[in-house]
Amino acid sequence: MLQLPHQPLQVAAIPPQRTPAREDQAGPWHSEAVCRRDEAGLFFAPSKEPTAARLSREESAKRVCARCPVMIECREHALVQPEPYGVWGGLTAAERRVALARRRRREAELKASGATGHIAAAG
User: Fold this and answer.
1) What are 28's strand-pairing partners?
2) Does residue 111 lie within any of the structural domains?
3) Which end of the chain has the least Cβ crowding within 10 Å, N or C?
């Protein structure tokens, strides 16, 4: 069996069939990610990490994300998949859960207001 060379965790964690391609160029968005050049441990928590260490590591990861040209694509990937662990697109897993809840609530409100408007227009 052919063995492929080891890839960084960020790339290996993104299955190619689920990775959206960028519209402005031929390659996938993650090929330009700044985190490809950084230590994967910065973006994913070690087991039993103390809270102060986790907060510091997450802030460092967010600083890397802040200078990344594909931060928006990364964030959207993490929200759509959804990625349960790590810092993606400048958001922690907890921050992504909040963003997803807001997105679902907003979509439900839009759907409800659209249905109400449709019923009012028909009546």
Assistant:
1) 21
2) no
3) N
The answer to the question of whether 105 is labelled as a binding residue is no
The answer to the question of residue 31 being in a domain is yes
pLDDT tens for each residue of 54-77: 999 999 999 999 999 999 999 999
- Known binding residue 25? Answer is no
80 in any annotated domain? yes
The Cα–Cα gap between 92 and 99 comes to: 10
Residue among 62, 91, 60 nearest 78 (CA): 91
For 119, residues 6+ apart whose C-beta sits below 8 A from its C-beta are: none
Report the range of poorest mean pLDDT among 13-22, 50-59, 108-117. 13-22
| Domain assignment present for 45 | yes
What percent of the chain shows pLDDT beyond 70?
A: 70
Residue-range definition of the domain harbouring residue 59: 15-94
35 in a labelled binding site:
yes
68 assigned binding-site residue: yes
